[in-house]
Amino acid sequence: MTGAPKIDTSSRLDHYPFALSSELRDAANEHGFRIGPEQASGWIFFRSASAPGEIAVAAAGHDGPFFLSITHSGAARELSAPPAQPCAKGHAAAFALPTRDALFEAVGEVYRKSISLPTQPLEQYEREIEHLGNTETERVQKVRIGQDIFRGALLSYWNGTCPITGITDTALLRASHIIPWARCETDADRLDVHNGLLLSSLWDAAFDEGLVTFDDEGRPIASSDLTDAAIKALHLQGVPRLVLTPEHRMRLAWHRTHIWQG
What we know:
Elements lengths: L6 E2 L9 H12 L5 E6 L2 E5 L6 E6 L6 E5 L2 H6 L4 E3 L7 E5 L2 H17 L3 H10 L6 H22 L15 E5 L9 H4 L5 E5 H8 L3 E3 L5 E3 L5 H7 L11 H13 L4
Parallel strand pairs: 1-6
Antiparallel strand pairs: 2-3, 3-4, 4-5, 5-7, 6-7, 8-9, 10-11
Helix pairs in contact: 1-3, 3-5, 4-5
């Protein structure tokens, strides 16, 4: 979104009729932001008991446009919505949404990103292992706890959907490390959602074995070791591109060098 023209939020209402106020409150409450509301300068503010930061919502009228302002800088960098200005006081960024449904979707994305982006999974992991020592059994337990937390974070980050196949069946989804757990240098790397992809089981197996990888544009690259049957089963010619951050691209470059069987 860098360099994109920003939409002016000054058209937002200062006072909201009951029906519109209820819709704005529902947009926050239904996606985990249930502490509030507080209102100032046309913004209605909410916080969450489980996600860091604060959001503010506003509208220019019952039919929109709608506005969303957030404090979480990481979520702001990754939110897929048109930027707006000015944001609420003390916030990192604001966004413009054309419809009520778009506002609801954006608030949900902010919540998912807020609870999954660094350093939330790492902090949860450190809380859950603080009572464990360093015996072999306890080290195995730490790995299990970390991998469970990492999977939960990826499920939130990718909205419970494999971005390649669209599969949402949780039992068929795998938390695929880009740089494998054992080869990460720190727990922060192991638990960073940018070091993972939420893939269906077949894609996970192919990615883990280096039979597929992805370029910087999110396009799959097949190994010459793949059979025609595997290429057909993976639908390699018709899958969508991954939406990647610079952090994903950095780790995928490592994967292409160290894991991919090119």
